[in-house]
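Complex record, six chains
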Amino acid sequence: MPIAYLTRRERFSAAHRLYKPEFSDEENFRLFGQCSHPNWHGHNYELFVTVKGEINQDLGYVVNLKLVSQVIRDRVISKLDHKNVNIDVDFMRGMLATTENLAIAIWKELEQPLLEVGAQLHRVKIKETENNFVEYYGE
Amino acid sequence: MPIAYLTRRERFSAAHRLYKPEFSDEENFRLFGQCSHPNWHGHNYELFVTVKGEINQDLGYVVNLKLVSQVIRDRVISKLDHKNVNIDVDFMRGMLATTENLAIAIWKELEQPLLEVGAQLHRVKIKETENNFVEYYGE
Amino acid sequence: MPIAYLTRRERFSAAHRLYKPEFSDEENFRLFGQCSHPNWHGHNYELFVTVKGEINQDLGYVVNLKLVSQVIRDRVISKLDHKNVNIDVDFMRGMLATTENLAIAIWKELEQPLLEVGAQLHRVKIKETENNFVEYYGE
Amino acid sequence: MPIAYLTRRERFSAAHRLYKPEFSDEENFRLFGQCSHPNWHGHNYELFVTVKGEINQDLGYVVNLKLVSQVIRDRVISKLDHKNVNIDVDFMRGMLATTENLAIAIWKELEQPLLEVGAQLHRVKIKETENNFVEYYGE
Amino acid sequence: MPIAYLTRRERFSAAHRLYKPEFSDEENFRLFGQCSHPNWHGHNYELFVTVKGEINQDLGYVVNLKLVSQVIRDRVISKLDHKNVNIDVDFMRGMLATTENLAIAIWKELEQPLLEVGAQLHRVKIKETENNFVEYYGE
Amino acid sequence: MPIAYLTRRERFSAAHRLYKPEFSDEENFRLFGQCSHPNWHGHNYELFVTVKGEINQDLGYVVNLKLVSQVIRDRVISKLDHKNVNIDVDFMRGMLATTENLAIAIWKELEQPLLEVGAQLHRVKIKETENNFVEYYGE
């Protein structure tokens, strides 16, 4: 059976801040630049979730895209959209709110629930701005 | 002399919250939806500034675009990028952090300084997400 | 009170065909090109609805964007998305399924319901492909 | 010799419907959602064809991009653009008109003709909407 | 009869340089910045041509878009695409190769030929980069 | 430690020409099409640089994105933006100004300096137009 990769984009608008509480503002600025600004800033994040699988010969698709979208929205978007990544998001607790950590945490949130709808997670990609994005393949 | 319209896009990533402190969380949610979330959220805003003018016959342009860009960055972007619209921005003090109010406030910030570099402000457009934008013509 | 313009984008994917039943296939092809293909074709249409109004001093916005979006989805998107413009859409009955006619028909569908949520319709813009769009201002 | 990947985008606007004729409308809706709508719907599809190869030291490119584009247009776009995927397209006969099947069928159409112009097919990617795309690597 | 605005996008990739031969390199740099670089630079320009007109009740459109596109390509794109704006383009002879001058010159090239296919020119918009564009309305 | 891929986009506008001086104009046109036009043409190039690495547990990122951006701008963008690829760019000397060669040359320019800021280069992608891009992985 041929193998295809299916990607779904979902979006969320969130606030965040990059900093380590044990460091001074100056040290945080040196490490994280403007992203360490104390009163938060935010982004329109784009999340691209790619699943991989054999094409079901009977139905012609890897998996019902509606189910994939529903899992992403239930597990991830509902917790991130119009929220503060540092404060509000259970699966980001205790982690620096970087795009890298976000990608890993979203992978962990999605891997099992996607399997339950028949989709094997292949890649999580997060676009923070039109100039920056991070990809994570579960390695 | 022919008249042309010149538009410069600049971007800023900022946090904000829509709410009225005198209202309950429920009332704020009814009026402002998810945007009233207490712990802030944020956007990658796109700002499009349009100036209008006769084309300088000698130089072939309405105004030196570098100067327009510099004014926008000095007066607006430097105050908004990686900031909190509600807390950090002097020209938004005392105003609800809506896109409409932001457009008007940015118009006020830019109108005179743009005139000083020879550019007459025509329109301020702010794109908050790929699905929403506001335009203000100074009326 | 300052006046602002607020635009909401909504999307729909639909099939259509441009042809006049009283004409031959050749004549239809001459008038409408590939768009006259008998077995239909389709597009990812983008609909931009712009409303105009004074900014409510108390709430800082022209109108609650959620309400605008809801009206557009109830009146227009629900009837067009994943449908056939020629066959399925009540407000397009008896009309050629051109982008121009679609823009006028959508204006008629939206004008009154938008007024009822406090929004005065200013422009309907429909982007058919990345290379073509139509704007209608109710004139 | 260094190896590079060259991608060409071509576009087509087509109608389609996802359904299995042996199933009821209800069953088709359960499996394919709105895409099973009987009167068709459509999309502006974007097709990204990636070829892979050593860079010709003499000419500085993997392959003449014009030839790649010509092959894609002759073999694929001319058959899909302004057409109905279910009815009009010879290489989709007997297959469900899913994006996955389309990607595989396009791979089969392009692999040999691209080889004949010196280009080894690496990936077929089809973007159905701004939120969904499928990739196929010939596996 | 309702009036609609129809816009067609066409693209061209061209080289140009902004400078006045009677000025020194330093003076040209002061006036035109990096765009005065002597060995040329270039852009992927996007040209948006908007025509305005009553909707033909019989055919449901303002004008046959194919004709509009053909006029733009014959009169403008064929002369600009993969060319040097300063050297190769007859309708830019003797003018500074600014986006403003380009917009005016394209207006003059298109106005009459568009009338001959039944389309009244309303606006010429040229996007030079993702951050800059110029609009000209024939005033 | 988990491994992530971080991509930074930077842009440059440049002129170029594809041709071999030892060939006739006709032969160059046959090999390179319109890109062989003698008086140059140009593009708004988009450069996507992807680095790969373990996520620093302490700082939550692969590498400080500011440093990556600074390296790209110092080593590549400053030499290409508003320049002529054939004439002005030291690291393209003696090479055909194809996108493939540009990708390889940029890889060579960036590999070592990126290592010095702690980033391992994974991919260089150059988008020449909205329809064409090249990727190089250092193989």
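Note: The longest strand of chain C covers residues 3-16.
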